[in-house]
């Protein structure tokens, strides 16, 4: 009963699922779809400007000195994950629904999360400073690498918007670069209003999901995907996460990292960012495909939070070492 009492609803996920349900029942059509599509493009540009203004370059620079750890995490994020998800798309159709192939590949190419990775490393008594640096570096690199990697791997799926890379430059890279350039002037303002701007981030993701799902529903997504397909996707996401957690844990141990560094590698190397994934999907893919492609990401996002919360608590209960003195308060 105590455990149940501590479980709080994830309103962000509830709103995201609700946007998908609303789009399934009442999709945006005609002029409304055009207007919402334009609003989404503006919102994505604003969000990536804020990402650029918010991302601490100092943390990335500080983390360069621990290059072996960060290369290990980046290898898990941008090599191991894509290899596993591409492999899943090659499985028979009765295992991996072909309609979800583009979404699985996109999932594999995304950068790590920042907030949840750092939070879980802190709970697990790992190297929080390394997690801050690595998660920041992953997102910084992911802004450039994820669209290129996903576009290359998904080209054979016929899902990539022909003008995708122009859109990505205008909608994602230019605003991000402007945010980084403006950081000396707006960084303090953004930091003071992080909570309010976080609501803008999340609201934009909900809007993207609704617009993308609307297009997919209009194109007949639910006539191609059934309940059994979603069950198979759930199993695939569980297997994917378990494989990455096991491989990163074994690799970190084999490479001789300390327990604190192992924890940072496991949690930062096993996450995928919904905040980055939804805008990239909207920019990279044709509208109807983007709605379907977000389904694996939404499923994996929730699984990773639940599994890593339990794993962090298990790490935290180890009696062997005190919390590392890494200069970061974990609360």
User: Radius of gyration, rounded?
Assistant: 19 Å
> Percent helix among the residues?
over 70%
Strand content: under 5%
Shape: globular
Mean model confidence by pLDDT: 79
Low-confidence stretches: 323-331
Q: How many strands, what sense, and barrel or not for the largest sheet?
A: none
Cα separation of the termini: 25 Å
Number of helices: 15
Question: What is the chain-wise order of helices and strands?
Answer: HHHHHHHHHHHHHHH
Structural category is mainly alpha
Give the strand tally: 0
Explain this structure to me?
With 331 residues, this protein is mainly alpha-helical. 78% of the residues lie in helices and 0% in strands. It has 15 helices and no strands. Helix 4 crosses helix 8 and helix 5 packs antiparallel against helix 12. The chain is globular and about 60 Å long.
């Amino acid at each position: 009963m105590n455990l149940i009492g501590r479980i709080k609803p994830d309103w962000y996920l509830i709103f995201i699922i609700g946007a998908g349900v609303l789009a399934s029942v009442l999709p945006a059509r005609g002029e409304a779809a055009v207007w919402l599509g334009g609003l989404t493009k503006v919102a994505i540009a604003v969000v990536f400007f804020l990402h650029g203004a918010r991302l601490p370059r100092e943390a990335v620079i500080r983390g360069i000195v621990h290059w072996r750890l960060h290369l290990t995490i980046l290898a898990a994020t941008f090599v191991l994950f894509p290899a596993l998800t591409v492999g899943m798309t090659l499985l028979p159709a009765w295992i991996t629904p072909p309609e979800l192939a583009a979404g699985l590949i996109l999932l594999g190419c995304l950068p790590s999360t920042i907030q949840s990775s750092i939070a879980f490393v802190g709970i697990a008594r790992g190297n929080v400073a390394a997690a801050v640096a690595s998660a920041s570096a992953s997102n910084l690199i992911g802004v450039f690498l994820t669209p290129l990697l996903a576009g290359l791997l998904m080209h054979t799926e016929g899902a990539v918007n022909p003008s995708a890379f122009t859109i990505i430059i205008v909608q994602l890279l230019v605003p991000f670069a402007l945010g980084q350039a403006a950081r000396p002037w707006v960084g303090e303002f953004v930091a003071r209003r992080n909570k309010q701007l976080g609501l803008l981030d999340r609201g934009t993701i909900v809007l993207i999901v609704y617009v993308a799902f609307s297009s997919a529903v209009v194109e007949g997504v639910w006539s191609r995907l059934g309940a059994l397909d979603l069950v198979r996707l759930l199993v695939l996401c569980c297997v994917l996460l378990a494989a990455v957690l096991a491989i990163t844990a074994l690799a970190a141990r084999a490479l001789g990292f300390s327990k604190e560094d192992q924890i940072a590698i496991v949690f930062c190397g096993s996450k995928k960012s919904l905040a980055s994934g939804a805008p990239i999907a909207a920019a990279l893919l044709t509208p109807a495909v983007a709605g379907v492609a977000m389904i694996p990401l939404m499923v994996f996002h929730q699984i990773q939070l639940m599994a890593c919360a339990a794993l962090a608590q298990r790490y935290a209960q180890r009696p062997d070492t005190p919390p590392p003195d890494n200069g970061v308060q974990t609360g």
